[in-house]
């Protein structure tokens, strides 16, 4: 009888220890999943870069459209007749290093960029920290408009840091200081150097749908400059290998030097541009 009771006690103790180990493992898995999930699903929040990078050897094809102002009404079919198109390619050299090239029809601008992840959010680190450097060439400029134009004048540059955090399963926010250098002043209202601070976020409302928003404040724009600070709102739709982003913005360009310094729309007057981004991952 004593032997039976001893065996029963050992058996129950083993089950209890196994349950404890299993619960510990499950807690660890939940904790890892909590921090390994990326703050953003696409490499852009809307127009601005996010802290998301392509994985090593992943290849992204990016197609973006920004239509004309919806204020133009039926005469342009609410802007659909005046589309600006961006085509881009992005490649993940490593999980921390991406390179990209692209071209936008607005000002016929060609761009190349490098994105690098310095730090990833984890149990010990509260933030993602990512850097982004890009160069842009405006190939539309003509020496008939600017008689002293040189090839260097066509260039502009962006230097950007991004700090993001995924606060919970649904909410991610990003803060991003930026410096833009324009080698050419397009008007007397312009300056060569711009300091800008951007804030953006993503709120997941279902498994495949998220609401996004972003705003950038330009500290360097002269008071007489007629352009606006860009404000955009959008919806992310995840469909397998695609991320489909629908958006409304007061800037028609998809590239930073243009939409951050030359956003011509005014939300209060209904000067808003509808557009979308499609990302296909290979």
TrEMBL record:
Name of the protein in its database record: DUF5777 domain-containing protein
- DUF5777 domain location is 40-282
Q: Which organism is it from?
A: Flammeovirga agarivorans
Residues annotated as coiled-coil are none
Concerning SUPFAM superfamilies, the annotation shows: Porins
Q: Which residues form the signal peptide?
A: 1-18
Keywords associated with the record: Signal
Keyword Heme carried by entry: no
